[in-house]
Amino acid sequence: MFFLSDMLNKKLNLPKPGEALPGRAKPIATAARHYVLKHPLKGPYPDGLETALFALGCFWGAERLFWQIEGVWVTASGYSGGFTPNPTYQEACTGLTGHAETVLVVFDPKIVSYATLLKIFWEAHDPTQGMRQGNDVGTTYRSAIYTVNEAQRQQALASRDAYQASLKAAGRERITTVIEPAGEFYFAEEEHQQYLAKNPGGYCGLKGTGVSCAIPAAAAPTPA
Q1: Residue 92 needs a FRET pair 20 to 30 A away by CA distance; which of 15, 38, 136, 220 works?
Q2: Cβ atoms 58, 203 nearer than 8 A
Q3: How far apart are CA 95 and CA 19, in angstroms?
């Protein structure tokens, strides 16, 4: 019984830096190109594109959500917000790397705004669940937005506050989503990239709250 409790604690509580798995110096092998969009997974990305990082549960369904959006140039599944360098999927799932399953989104802001991506993020999952998303339990499934600059941080915070008001009006709990500056994004193994395009009947745990997220009109894409 102690063993089961100990394992659950590791899955529900983030490790301290000194407790994290050591990882490795070299990146793990991954795909060269996006299976659906055919663009280079790791770049180089065309000038004028921007990047965003979202964690909203299992990255299989989350990545598919974003690659279908017009204006998204490439997506990738990976790991962010932890301590272990170049973690494997198995390591991340132990809860001992500190990472969240994260989707990298490279997008054209002239076609789709960051604000629109935020709206999609909030509505596609339940951001009130803490260290889980539905039946997926553990720190790797926590809700998070990793921002690459101050403008993203401000928009993310504003959208969180707006969505919190909508959730409160609907009788829902408080948002537990972490919003923090992006650190290193580690690409997941090739088998996890665009997983649901390769396995159409595969598991997708995405489930929103049914509450709409209002995004200010001023945050719409800049006309070309």
Answers
A1: 38
A2: yes
A3: 11
Closest CA relative to residue 23, chosen from 105, 115, 90, 116: 90
Does an H or E element contain 132, and which?
A: strand 132-133
Closest CA to 185 of 54, 93, 62, 24: 54
pTM: 0.93
pLDDT tens per residue across span 130-173 = 999 999 999 999 999 999 999 999 999 999 999 999 999 999 99
Helices and strands (H and E) in the chain: how many: 6, 8
Distance CA 204, CA 207 (A): 9
What's the token pair of residue 37? Answer: 């969009």
223 exposure class (CB count in 10 Å sphere: 0-12, 13-18, 19+):
exposed
- The answer to whether residue 58 is catalytic is yes
